[in-house]
Specification:
Number of strands of chain A: 8
Largest sheet of chain A: 8 strands, mixed
Strand order of the largest sheet of chain A: 3-4-2-5-1-6-7-8
Shape of chain A: globular
Order of helices and strands of chain A: EHEHHHEEHHEHEHHEHEHHH
Oligomer: homodimer
Number of helices of chain A: 13
Bound molecules: adenosine-5'-triphosphate, magnesium ion
Chain lengths: 270, 270
């Protein structure tokens, strides 16, 4: 079955795009067919991969706004096994342009349903969300089967988690009852910090208390390994490269590869 | 004259709040009268200082929405020389609630004008902006005299700068002709990284090319020292403390103190 994962956090600069690109690259490198969808008007996903979102024809904006545009028309082959749907700054207008559209949260899901019916197949679809809980993120949540929350193990980062889970719960009760929160992905992690350890302990306590309950995060975990802070991960996008291309043996590359392997095993077992 | 500074960056998690609190604390500690205004519905500024924004009576929301609320009613004395106007999550509704208000970008400026006329005085007013270029940020820009842009020396962080400066230029040409961009404050800086140095060089080149022109950033600089990445800065808010209270001799405290001193000297010279 296709795994559809939304990388979600309304807080900015927490590692959503870096994780989407590098997890996607690690999965593709391991032989899985991967599609990355950029839902952020900043267009950093395409930038990170060295793709020019504005010259590539149809992208996320056209896919959401134009009923005549199919998913196939919006897909670029970025790397072997790694397809991309690009975002451009036009996407910023989507929120208002779609304000009166019918079922404006289900557009992404519908375009994908049509594509699947037509035989399109990937093993993993990763949705890079913008730092907000608006229409673009809601389209991701209406389509996704799971949510991964990239975040830093900082006190201030914990504060937004409640509101994020509320939004997931809302969509889960409404339009997407199978939506699950798979867990938290710790990014830019500094393992020597006792503060970091306390925040991680707090997260684990929170998820443990939800075990056996009816919430969407009742079997959520804190993924290990944490992705360590590693400047190579910030350098790679300036060359339009994934971390596996830019610095295949650096800690950042190791962490994302290990994460990809663990997620595949996890998913296989369920 | 009162320095009114907006700490601005539509990108999230770049150090706006950490810088507002700690620069403010350093200025207050040096004997200046400081007011911090939280314009972010996340309310992290109050959280950072150990103030409960929701129980403190009037805050930014009431100040913007209720003509009967004066600035004086919204002020809390957080520390010696350090006053605060708190934000609560209600502030998230301000954008839509003010959509049809007259001169909805000038509300903050008007409330302050009334307060100044009544004799209110601070040496420095720092405005902590949310990660967006919407109504709350525009109120900051309509009132501020200068803009400081906290950012990380990362490739992806450079990408949003153009749009940020466009917005400043718009407000500068319209409602606030004296608005200047004082410069960029490098946050979470890793000085050993050659990538960081390249990004800093790029920023300096960009500002040098603007010298002598008519833009709002024609005398902008990259402030030194950069504020180094230092986990203490992420720990302090979990205790409701400024860095000067939490770890007065750590690199984070040193950097913000040095910065405060340099800014004061800079401002004195102009
Ligand atoms: N583990 C890491 N070590 C060092 N730098 C990192 C790491 N992960 C991400 N970065 C850098 O931190 C910044 C923020 O990361 P990223 O853009 O992935 O976050 P985001 O959540 O997608 O941000 P936004 O909310 O703006 O979309 C980027 O400059 C990125 O290159
Ligand atoms: N120099 C630093 N070293 C280590 N951690 C830092 C540093 N500066 C800020 N942080 C931490 O990084 C995170 C983001 O910082 P901060 O909240 O100040 O950014 P922001 O721009 O105000 O974010 P937002 O856009 O959400 O308002 C916080 O958890 C903060 O504690
Ligand atoms: Mg992103
Ligand atoms: Mg902030």
């Amino acid at each position: 079955p296709t795994r559809v994962v939304a990388l979600l956090n309304q807080k900015g600069g927490v590692g959503k795009t870096t994780s989407t690109v590098n997890l996607g690259a690690a999965l593709a490198d391991a032989g899985h067919r991967v599609l990355l969808v950029d839902l952020d008007p900043q267009g950093h996903l395409s930038l990170h991969l060295g793709i020019d979102g504005s010259t590539c024809g149809e992208g996320t904006y056209e896919l959401l706004l134009d009923p005549a545009v199919s998913l196939a028309a919006a897909i670029q082959h970025a790397r072997p096994n790694l397809d991309v749907v690009s975002a451009t700054v036009d996407l910023a207008a989507a929120e208002s342009e779609l304000a009166d559209a019918d079922d404006r949260h289900g557009i992404l899901a519908r375009k994908f349903a049509e594509a699947f019916a037509g035989g399109a197949r990937w093993d993993y679809i990763l949705l890079d969300c913008p730092p907000s809980l608006g229409l673009l993120t809601l389209n991701a949540l209406a389509f996704a089967r799971e949510v991964i929350v990239p975040m830093q193990a900082h006190f201030l980062a914990l504060q937004g988690l409640g509101r994020l889970l509320e939004t997931v719960a809302l969509v889960g009760h409404g339009v997407n009852p199978d939506l699950r929160v798979a867990g938290v992905l710790l990014c830019m992690h500094e393992s020597q910090s006792s503060h970091g350890r306390e925040v991680v302990a707090e997260l684990k306590r929170f998820f443990n208390e939800a075990r056996g309950s009816a919430v969407a995060w009742s079997d959520a975990t804190v993924f290990l390994p944490a992705v360590r802070r590693n400047i190579k991960l910030a350098e790679a996008p300036s060359f339009g490269q994934t971390i596996l291309e830019y610095a295949p043996t650096c800690p950042g590359a190791m962490d994302y590869r290990t994460l990809a392997t663990r997620l595949v095993e996890d998913w296989r077992r369920r």
